[in-house]
Amino acid sequence: MNSQFSDFFKLLTARFLFIIAVQIQTIILGWHMYDITKNPLYLGFIGLAEAIPALILALPAGMFVDRHKPLNIYRGVLAVGFLSCLVLALSQVHEFHLAHSIEVWALFASALISGGARAFNMPSVYAIMPRILPRQNYSRYVTYLTTSTQAARIIGPAIGGLLYAYVGVFSASAVACVFVLIAMVVALFIRKNLAAANPRAKLNSRSSLNELFTGVKFVFRHKLLLPAMSLDMISVFFGGVTALLPIYAAEILHVGPQGLGYLRAAPAVGAVLVGFLLTRIEFRHKAGRWLFAAVAGFGVSTIVFAVSHNYALSLIAMFFIGGFDSISMVIRGTTVQLSSPDEMRGRISSVNAVFIGSSNELGEFESGVAAKIMGTIPAAVFGGVVCLITVATTVALAPALRALNLRELEVESNSKN
Q1: Whole-number Å distance between alpha carbons of 243 and 251
Q2: Of the candidates 263, 241, 225, the residue with the CA atom closest to the CA atom of residue 385
Q3: pLDDT of 9 strictly over 50
Q4: Helix axes 225-239, 287-307, angle to 10 degrees
Q5: pLDDT the model gives residue 2
Q6: What's the predicted TM-score (pTM) here?
Q7: Nearest to residue 148, comparing CAs of 18, 292, 302?
Q8: How far apart are CA 390 and CA 285, in angstroms?
Q9: Distance (Å, rounded) from C-alpha 75 to C-alpha 193?
Q10: Domains of the chain and any CATH numbers
């Protein structure tokens, strides 16, 4: 096997195992927090605890990745992720007899540490990939990355839900620790330790604010990146229902932690199947149309899930949510990668991480607050409606994104690099 593809496979494997662990951890954090508190607002606080360090560290993380070896940074991400899982596991050791209030703070601490690791996760991976892979047909490699990520999101919630139900919180947490450890070992065998993209910057001990915000300025001036990231951020911020799944599982669908695991896994099943289809069909020439159709489908599926009281229908709706989201992820991820100069890749991907973190973790907080104020079902319906309004607005305001052609973007990126 060609060395560059061998290293790419190892990167996929390490990321795959790490995301399984993260998904197991997420199941435990969400269900156990709700089990202890019975308060949807605390589910929002878990998302906020992860979002705060991820967002605060995002821009410095991108600059740090551009200055240092991205593979070493990704190995550090895995190490910090292991620490987060370890804190969760230790908080569940029965011999410690922790009070519920202390246990709640331990769950927050685990989420906080995980958020710190995530700030460096995407910039480091996005800095590694284009430098070990050819630019031709780059969208296919992004599809492989997205599909493997979604496959992990199938396996992780299923494992987490089953372990939580049958062997308890501690054993489930210990399994998450083992998955991260294996990922750390796999990452050590990646041979091509890439040099820093901007090594001269390492000579300056103090970076100016201008350098720190270079990625932000680039994105906000770009005719494709800003509307693509904004479309995803606003849609998922309001339309995401992930934080509400423990409530749906416990009080609306009455399926318990096992059912929660399947609800968390269903979007990933849809994403994997759609990701497989994307490697077999030609979508690049009309990528803009595919993107808008996918986000609109995401909103409609969210509304269906919101009003469903039937477990089978809810699973189907979550399946389509994941499938539509996969299309959006592949197109947006490829656009970000191909539009980013090598020397700024870490900073631009960190801005992308801010948008994604805002939509995911802060979106979970928004879901918890909205559910507390409006009720669970009205909050979820409201999110789906806002998603559809966002699609209509972006279609009208972003003609360049409507006309997005990834094949032309690949050719342009290859000529520049």
Answers
A1: 14
A2: 241
A3: yes
A4: 10
A5: 58
A6: 0.71
A7: 18
A8: 23
A9: 11
A10: 3-189+216-416 (1.20.1250.20)
